[in-house]
Design a protein that fits this description.
Two copies of one chain form a homodimer.
Chain A lengths: L11 H15 L6 H8 L3 H8 L2 H25 L4 H10 L14 H9 L4 H28 L8 H22 L2 H15 L1
The structure holds a DNA duplex.
Keywords (chains A, B): DNA-binding, Transcription, Transcription regulation
Protein name (chains A, B): TetR/AcrR family transcriptional regulator
InterPro entries (chains A, B): DNA-bd_HTH_TetR-type_CS, Homeodomain-like_sf, HTH_TetR, Tet_transcr_reg_TetR-rel_C_sf, TetR_C
Chain lengths: 195, 195
DNA sequence: TTACTTTTGTACTGATTAATACAAAAAAAT
DNA sequence: ATTTTTTTGTATTAATCAGTACAAAAGTAA
């Protein structure tokens, strides 16, 4: 059908990835469309032609962040080896090893705080993310209980709920405080209550 | 000294309390100074004369929210009776009982996500709040361990860290999802790993 | 009442915002 | 090369923003 004129000079995913970074460092309201143009390398025309509006680009960014993130986290939880190592890896995920880099926090959590109340798209994606993550955590803990690595005394549902919540707490507390000692207490404490 | 002219027609704390509500429902960037005037009942002149700028009013709101909140939470943790009841009360704090009202989330957590990276005041107050809360939780758990209510096998530091983090996770997850069943799993799971 | 001080609301300013209009450029197809 | 289609950057628009200026109002003190 398409008579195919000049082809695009950019990959959509690359632009969205760049947008994710902008929204993650600045939040939705704080970053301007100019910031988005500069960081993505697109001119205004291209950006609006390709994505329609700031908010639509934001939705794409949220979706992509969600999809890439949930996949990475599930992968961590499904690694072979002791379940304890999987859970520790997840807790330590996105906590920079060297104490230099700054952690910018989770885009979805920040989006939920900033916009979930007024933005149905944010709410929907956040819910979906939490839901999938809880399932993946549940499976990992269940696996641990089946192999005997984790006691069967406490229910899988409750252990998964506790772990999920503590994980999210860490992902709020650490980026804001950059307190490594506290992060260690949280991580060790969370694991020690399960194992 | 002061020749004392016309007295103010408003109480500072009442205005700040109103501002807390505005910032809590809208976030810093999303609410306008007009919104603040309308919700506080002050005219622009009065508001700027009394508080200087939007950001200064925001600081006052954060401080007040912090102070009122930390006091309430400490009070809950220091109630007499089983420590388990105290910890449950804290977890259930600000989770509306009737399933009607909407929960607007914690102003400090949202502020940390939206602004901690660019706003030293936010970062400082958030750190302070977390620090005081961890201490209060630590004391409660220690008390439980001294009375034998909580096992001494796990260290107080780690239990407190885990509980703090799970509590914060809940305060992120619940307002964004309004999922009561999940909240129950989290609360029960968190308590069951301690007791 | 008079003098003085502070509050209060309105009108305004300059800056910035998201979004649009549009012409020039660039590639593909014929 | 010419036509066609799309991209791309610039200029622009209308709205909104935080903050200011200022005169009128309203209280206190004498």
């Amino acid at each position: 059908m398409s008579k195919s004129g000049r082809p695009r000079e950019f990959k959509d995913t690359a632009v969205i990835d760049a947008a994710v970074e902008v929204f993650r460092t600045n939040g939705y309201e704080t970053c301007s469309t100019d910031d988005l143009c500069k960081q993505t390398g697109l001119g205004r025309g291209s950006l609006y032609n390709a994505f329609g509006s700031k908010h639509e680009l934001y939705e794409h960014a949220l979706r992509r962040y969600h999809e890439v993130g949930i996949q990475a986290q599930i992968e961590i939880l499904e690694q072979e080896g002791p379940v304890k190592d999987c859970l520790r890896s997840l807790l330590e995920w996105e906590i920079p090893k060297g104490e230099e880099a700054d952690s910018r926090g989770c885009l979805l959590i920040n989006a939920a705080g900033e916009r979930a109340k007024n933005d149905p798209v944010v709410e929907k994606i956040f819910k979906q993310h939490v839901d999938l993550l809880e399932q993946a955590i549940w499976k990992a803990i269940r696996r641990g209980q089946e192999t005997g690595e984790i006691s069967n005394v406490k229910s899988t549902d409750e252990l998964a709920g506790m772990f999920l919540s503590s994980y999210y707490g860490l992902r709020v507390i650490f980026p804001a405080t950059m307190n490594y000692a506290l992060a260690e207490r949280i991580i060790d404490g969370t694991l020690d209550t399960i194992f």
